[in-house]
Each structure stands twice: as C-alpha cells, then as structure tokens.
Write a structure and sequence with these properties.
- The radius of gyration is 18 Å and the shape is globular.
- Helix content is about 40%, strand content about 15%.
- A 7-stranded mixed β-sheet has the order 1-2-3-4-5-6-7.
- With about 280 residues, it is α/β, with parallel strands linked by helices.
- A hairpin with a 3-residue loop joins strand 3 and strand 4.
- The protein has 10 helices and 7 strands.
- The protein has 2 domains: about 200 residues, TIM Barrel, CATH 3.20.20; about 60 residues, DNA polymerase, domain 1.
- The structure holds adenosine monophosphate (AMP) and manganese (II) ion (3 copies).
- The site of adenosine monophosphate has 11 residues, from helix 6 and helix 7.
C-alpha cells in the first residue's frame, strides 16, 4: 500500500493548495493520503473532494504542536479525525492563537539585527494568516535574496539560539492525544528523529506519557528520517507495541527531501497504522 500520512498544504505552511497537493500525490502513485496541516483542519474538505474525484483513499488529519515543559515543542499527528469534532476544533483554535503575536516578536528580533520588513514579508507567504509561522519568514528571507534557500535560513535564523527564534506555546501532550481520540482518530508521534534536544531519558518519558495518554503510533518512515533512524524507530515501534506510520512531511518541491506519495516502505513485520480503525472496519 503506497500510503502517505503526513503532508502540508497552503492552509498551514505547505506551498500547494489542498486540491493541487492531492493531485500531486495521486500522480506520484499514492493510494492512501492524509492531509496533516499544522493545527488546522481547514484544508481537509477540499482535499477529500479532490481525492474522491480521483478515486484515491483519503483520511483527514492534523499535526498538532505540543509543548513539553517550558521550551520544547514536539508534533503529534492525528489521523482519521472527524474534522467537525467540536472539542478538536476548539482545541486547535487555542493552539493557533498566539501565532500573530509571536510573528510580531520574530519580526522585532529581525529588526534588532537590521533585517527590516520581515513581518509584512512573511505574511505575503501565509495564505492563512492565522497560521503564520517560521516557514513563511524563511520563504521571505529567500525571496528577498537574504538567504539562498529555506534550509540555510534555518541554519542561521529562526532555530533555537538563533535570531528570530521565538517559541510558540502548543497544546499539552495528553490534551492533544485526547482531542485526537475524542474525534475518532489515532495519535501518532511525528518524525521522532527530530527530537534530539531531548535526552534519552526525556525521550523515553515522552513516549511513556504519549502511550499513557492513549497514543498508539509512531512515524517510522518520515521525510526527515535517514535509513538508520528509520531502523531505530522501527525497533521502538516493536518494543513499545506501537503501530507504524509513514509520511513524507511534504511542504514543497524545493524544500522537502521526499515528494508527496514517494515515501520508502515500512519494514514488513511492523503493523501499519492503516491496518486498524478508522482506516478499516
Ligand atoms: P513553527 O510551527 O512556526 O514553529 O514552524 C515550524 C515549521 O518550520 C516546520 O513545520 C517546518 O515546516 C519548518 N522548519 C522548522 N525547522 C526547519 C528546518 N531546519 N528546515 C526547514 N524547515 C524547517
Ligand atoms: Mn511545517
Ligand atoms: Mn512537524
Ligand atoms: Mn509536518
């Protein structure tokens, strides 16, 4: 099964509109797709409609920003959620809240180092102003000729310890898992290799808390994972009895390592997340 269960549209910080993203996934051979915009379900109706037109399986999804303690952010993907679930919608609105103010603080930080006009610049790239985020600032810095590409931007700016880094307060871990489960979905740890800021003990505690809260899956194949990392998180899935998910985390053709619908396969012994409800019966 060619499943891609993690990607972004212009509703958050992807560069393709939902329908265009679905067409690209389909053209790339995807058989099952989840749209997982950050903290926002506004794209799933359009995406679902386009997938139906193409005869491709589709599930609504979301990638929730979660704060662990004061200053660590992790991402929890919810798959197969009801996009009209009131508690989930209220929760996501709460997580989106604060992005505009954070954007002003990011721009003020850039002003201090002599990079002016970044707020207006970033908003030009944000189709959904409620979801203004670091990727939009990064695209502005590339478009304005300050930096050659988005990855280089994050090497110099916007990342922890660099100018333009302002943490965004996300949901609590148990809260996010509750919203997902309450909306009929499965909670998935997104791109676990990205959490190298956590010590081994902190990471294990995060996994314990995730499972205790009702989380059931982990991305074993993720756009950002190397082969070694994929094998490491396959071991984690086996040891902890987690379902395995697979997603490109596609944002755009020029910025993403893996194209939508072009993920590596999962190790065959793992139980894929799509072998369970709400994906089947
Ligand atoms: P935010 O939610 O505003 O903090 O922005 C997080 C988003 O920035 C991620 O979802 C990625 O799209 C992007 N991002 C973060 N770190 C990097 C990086 N090192 N390289 C490229 N994009 C990144
Ligand atoms: Mn993103
Ligand atoms: Mn993420
Ligand atoms: Mn993502």
């Amino acid at each position: 099964m060619n499943a891609d269960l993690h990607c972004h549209s212009t509703v958050s910080d992807g560069c393709l509109e939902p329908a265009a993203l679905v067409r690209r996934a389909h053209a790339n051979g995807a058989e099952l797709l989840a749209l997982t915009d950050h903290d926002e379900l506004g794209g799933v109706a359009e995406a679902a409609g386009e997938a139906a037109r193409l005869g491709m399986r589709f599930v609504p999804g979301v990638e929730i920003s979660v704060s662990l303690g004061e200053d660590t952010t992790v991402h929890i993907v919810g798959l197969g959620v009801d996009p009209l679930d009131p508690a989930l919608l209220v929760g996501l609105a709460k997580v989106r809240d604060g992005r505009r103010e954070r954007a002003q603080r990011i721009a003020a930080d850039f002003d201090r180092i002599g990079l002016h006009g970044t707020l207006e610049g970033a908003y030009r790239f944000a189709s959904n102003p409620e979801m203004i985020g670091r990727a939009h600032f990064a695209r502005h810095l590339v478009a304005s000729g300050t930096m050659p590409d988005v990855n280089t931007v994050f090497d110099h700016y916007l990342a922890r310890g660099k100018p333009g880094f302002v943490p965004h307060r996300g949901a609590g871990l148990a809260e996010a898992v509750d919203w997902i489960r309450g909306a009929g979905g499965i909670a998935v740890i997104a791109h676990p290799a990205r959490y190298h800021r956590l010590s081994k003990a902190e990471f294990n505690r995060f996994v314990d808390d995730f499972i205790a809260a009702g989380g059931e899956a982990v991305e074993v194949v993720a756009g950002a994972h190397t082969l070694d990392e994929m094998l490491r998180f396959a071991t984690l899935a086996r040891r902890r009895g987690l379902l395995a998910s697979r997603g490109s985390d596609f944002h755009s053709k020029t910025e993403s390592a893996v194209d939508v619908g072009r993920c590596n396969p999962l190790p065959p012994d793992l139980a894929p997340v799509w072998s369970r409800p709400p994906f089947v019966g």
